[in-house]
Structures are given as structure tokens and as C-alpha cells.
Amino acid sequence: KQEVTQIPAALSVPEGENLVLNCSFTDSAIYNLQWFRQDPGKGLTSLLLIQSSQREQTSGRLNASLDKSSGRSTLYIAASQPGDSATYLCAVSGSLQGAQKLVFGQGTRLTINP
Amino acid sequence: GAGVSQSPRYKVAKRGQDVALRCDPISGHVSLFWYQQALGQGPEFLTYFQNEAQLDKSGLPSDRFFAERPEGSVSTLKIQRTQQEDSAVYLCASSDGTGRGNTIYFGEGSWLTVV
Predict the structure, then answer these.
(1) Does B31 sit within 8 Å of A101, measured CB to CB?
(2) pLDDT of res. A94
(3) Residue B34 · residue A100 · CB < 8 Å
(4) CA–CA distance from A76 to each of A24, A26, A40, A103, B27 (Å)?
(5) I need a labelling partner for B24 at 20 to 30 A (CA). Which of A71, B34, B53, B101 fits?
(6) pLDDT of A99 strictly over 90
(7) Which candidate from A91, A98, A103 shows the least CB-CB separation from B56?
(8) What does the DSSP assignment read for A60-108?
């Protein structure tokens, strides 16, 4: 059974810092990996999607990397801003049975202090 | 509407009561998903529809949970004889394709509290 773990569970940094969020998964047979953002009381917004054949994806100040063989992904946020404060979730999609469902980590709650 | 719409946004149910949660996906979206998110946890998969066909219901926690999408658009998640452990946010999501690479759009969720 696929398990996804995110470290740290919470992170608080001053504005302007670069930071890294970590995600690990136990079964390397994935189809893709996604990073989502969730604001309090809101749904999830997809930030980046990395196919299993890719190593990284970039969108603005966000860069996500994927090392499928070691079961790890990182989300790098450059020049953090208070508006980046949210919970960040990673999720993997399986390549075999149950391919349509996403398995999520518990999330990292990020606070950017002005 | 422009996004995935869920109703009610908040529901307080007495233990043993039946509840129905509605999801209006983005118009034309083929795929529809239900997830359950407990407080402080990541979402957990409940069920998946492709049009009106329920292709995967492996995540439904018990036979008290039932989902339908009879005309391939609006979906309803029904929970019978609610219990306290059913308290969670129920998230609906949709995507415009059947492939796993399609962007998935989430609604804001229905917050269920069972007392």
C-alpha cells in the first residue's frame, strides 16, 4: 500500500527566505506526483504536476523535483512571501491498480512572517 | 459555474442521522472524485466516477457510504446512520479527461460534524 510522508509538518520562516518542503513515498511505481496548496477552509489548488518520466517542473517561484527511484520529491519556494502561507500537500498517482486515485501526504503547514 | 461547487458547505448532524452531500463539477468534466479529509490530515480517496459509471469505490469506508452520479454530471455522496468518526471535510474534485495527467480541480468541501 502506497504511503506518502511529508516533512516537516509545520514550518515558519521570515519573508524573503528560500525554503524546501519534502515529500517521500514508499512505492516507486507511480504515474505522476502533484503538489497542491490548501488555504484554510478552502479546497486544494494544483501547483505543479511531474510525470514519472520527468525530473522537475517549474512555475514562477516554485520548483518541484522528483527522484522516483528513491521515492522522494521536493518543493522549492524562492523568495517567500506572506501570501505563500498555506498548507502544501503532495500526492502520487499509482501506475497500476487504482490509477485514478491520488494518495496524499499529511501536508506541511507553512507560515511566512512579514 | 466556473469551479466545482459543493453544498451544503457546513452540516451538523446528530449521530444516526442520514446526510446527503452534493457536488456540481465543472461543466463537461468527465471524471469526478470524492475525498475525505480529517482534521490535520491529507485527503483520502473515497470513490471515482467516469461519466455516470462508478469505476472505483475502494475507498468508501463502510456500506453506510454511497455515492451516485446518475446523469454523469451532478454527484451525491450519501452517508447513512452517521457516526462521530464520519466528522470530516468531504472534498469533491473533477477533471476534463480520463487520463491521470489531467489537471484536477477541487471544490471547497462540505464540512460535516456529527454530534
Answers:
(1) no
(2) 77
(3) no
(4) 15, 21, 21, 21, 34
(5) B101
(6) no
(7) A98
(8) TTEEEEEETTTTEEEEEE-S--GGG-EEEEEEEEESSTTTT-EEE---E
| β-sheet bridge partners, residue B84 | none
Q: Least CB-CB distance to A104: which of B40, B43, B101?
A: B43
* CB–CB contact A100 B109 (8 Å): no
Residue A11, min C-alpha distance to chain B (Å): 15
Q: What is the pLDDT along chain B (115 residues), one digit of tens a residue?
A: 579 999 999 999 999 999 999 999 999 999 999 999 999 899 999 999 999 999 999 999 999 999 999 999 999 999 999 999 999 999 999 998 776 667 889 999 999 999 9
Report CA-CA distances (Å) from A48 to A12, A35, B19, B38, B100: 22, 5, 34, 24, 14
Tell me if chain A has a CB within 8 Å of the CB of B39: no
Number of Cβ pairs < 8 A linking chain A and chain B? 64
More confident site: B2 or A67 = A67
Q: Verify whether the Cβ–Cβ distance A105 to B100 is below 8 Å.
A: no
